[in-house]
Amino acid sequence: MIKPQIAPLGSWRSPITTELITNSAIRLGQIALDGEDIYWSEQRPSEQGRTVVVRRTADGQTQDVIAAPFNVRTRVHEYGGGSFLVVDGTVYFSNVADGRLYRQDTGKSPQPITSVAAMRYGDGIFDNQRHRIICVCEDHTIAGREPINTLVSLELEGDGNPQLLVYGNDFYTSPRLSPDGSRLAWLTWNHPNMPWDSTQLWVGELKADGSLGHTEQVAGGPDESIFQPEWSPDGNLYFISDQTGWWNLYRWRDESVESLTEMKAEFGKPQWNLGMSTYAFESTNRIICTYTQQGTWHLASLDTTTRQLQPLDLPYTDIDSLQATRGRVVFRASSPAQPAAIVQLHLTTGTLDVLRRSSEVIIDTGYLSQPQAIEFPTTNGQTAYALFYPPQNRDYTAVPGEKPPLLVKSHGGPTAATSSSLNFGIQYWTSRGIAVLDVNYRGSTGYGREYRQQLDGEWGIVDVDDCVYGARYLVERGEVDGDRLVISGGSAGGYTTLCALTFRDTFKAGASYYGVSDLEALAQDTHKFESRYLDRLVGAYPQQRQLYVVRSPVHFTDRLTCPVIFFQGLEDKVVPPNQAQTMVEALRTKGLPVAYVMFEGEEHGFRRPESIKRSLDGELYFYSRIFGFELAEPVEPVVIENL
């Protein structure tokens, strides 16, 4: 056995390169079942971020269904989701370039079924009786006006114009048709709520001509979030609600709602995307579902008659995008040792088939850091949560007495959560000798509604507290170097990052990925889905404008005393580029070391391999220059002003 080499932390040579990350990894998304065939979507960096649909037949053969240049994605709510559906081998999909819905028959070219217009479609279901698609529609046809969201039906032949079914509220998702085609369920909510704050579940009677008759609200309200309504094979409506403070399963039957699970666990997720699924019916009386406790997801079988929940032992800690049919369930899963994969579980035998891995790269576990779930005290007598990844590289050991730099990661959302999945973007750092703390600050999901709501009115304060206190906790335990603490985040996590760097003195450098620096500008210039998000996180605008000013780092650059690097897509509609540009100019004028890396053609979140490589290597290069450690391998430098 070769003795590990002694080398400074940050300077370790690693097999986890940006080429490995960008060239080998795909992003696995939506799953659909059609008879014996299994379909899923793949976003491929090697194809400039294009998303394709893949079919796997019963004999194990796989092939792409949608050919280039079609890109299967929708921009409803900007974040998309629910971009395709499959019926008897025919795939109906949204093409992001023109927003139109297309029909893909086997062996033929895709044919449009909607007209050319500024319309977006998603979360579709098929109405067999009336030979049509029912879906969410987002109308952008009138410039300067907030888009209009509705539920519509689309004829598969004809003029391609949508027919209105449900309208009048600000948002709609999850249209779901009863097995006999007589009733339609859906979710709806209005500004200033987000779907994890307050939603309503409605049911409407469908007439023979497809129009809606009598409608009624069956669940939801001002302090209740409903997630994923589904009809059982025998025609009862199931859904997930957090009315007890935790997202649990319920059933609407005989005009009344009854609880099926009563656990301090989350069976649902924040509805950032359309078409999300955490449970499915294997049969009339059996649900296969997922739930999370203390950051770990579990798979279970629920008998809807006895209400008995039976956990299924699997080697995964993150499970979602679940679909089921008789005797089997298909889902996306991952663990600290395994990257995301499409997995099929045969329920009678317990056999697991891995159908598609997000990466085929196999890395020796000697280079992989295992996440440690930690809890630590934070402000107001509260407890916060995080995953800690110490440095790990079988070929190296630290110089005696040296403690590792710490990279604190603040996730986006901010209503989201970290994952314990194998993430080469984290292992990139730990295998080079840099520790990582991935923080589930207050406001994150997975710990109940009360924990989620602790961010209400406190964004830019308690999330920052938790990142700061998490770093200090590790310093006090002697795990990391208190003089080499850095913080990085994207989008909302970029805002937390910039606030931590501006209003606190804990961190010595940071990286903002398309992060928010000016809350007022964000409130005035962002897309509809999040246009009132800040009402709850900060306060009503413009009535409480002063709060927006005092919590915006861009107005307090005089307090900023450490270097920052910014990465920004120039086509970003969620956080426009001027957010980064204003901050960069302020730092430049002040004389602080600053770098600004722009990406033509990138939106909110980078999809192209060259962008992912450039940003990750650029961030490492930036820290190496700031802290003065040598890199084991040369990377493309970034221009650092005022250094």
Features:
single chain, 643 residues, alpha+beta, Rossmann fold, Neuraminidase, 3 domains, 4-stranded antiparallel sheet, 38 strands, 35% strand, globular
Quickly give the structural class.
Answer: alpha+beta
Write down the oligomeric state: single chain
Strand content: 35-45%
Helix content: 10-25%
Whole-number tally of structural domains: 3
**What's the CATH first level of the largest domain?**
Alpha Beta
pLDDT < 50 runs, ≥5 residues? none
Distance between the termini: 43 Å
CATH architectural category of the largest domain: 3-Layer(aba) Sandwich
Give the biggest sheet.
8 strands, mixed
- Average pLDDT rating: 95
> Numbering strands along the chain, what is their spatial order in the largest sheet?
30-31-34-33-35-36-37-38
Secondary structure layout plus pairing:
Elements lengths: L4 E2 L11 H7 L2 E8 L2 E8 L5 E7 L5 E3 L19 E4 L2 E5 L6 E4 L6 E2 L6 E9 L4 E8 L8 E8 L7 E4 L4 E7 L5 E7 L10 E7 L5 E9 L5 E6 L5 E5 L6 E6 L2 E4 L19 E5 L2 E8 L2 E8 L5 E4 L5 E8 L2 E8 L2 E9 L5 E6 L14 E6 L5 E7 L6 E2 L8 E5 L13 H7 L4 E6 L8 H5 L8 H15 L8 E6 L1 H12 L5 E5 L5 H6 L8 H5 L7 H6 L13 E6 L8 H13 L3 E6 L9 H19 L16
Parallel strand pairs: 1-32, 33-34, 33-35, 35-36, 36-37, 37-38
Antiparallel strand pairs: 2-3, 3-4, 4-5, 6-7, 7-8, 8-9, 10-11, 11-12, 12-13, 14-15, 15-16, 16-17, 18-19, 19-20, 20-21, 22-23, 23-24, 24-25, 26-27, 27-28, 28-29, 30-31, 31-34
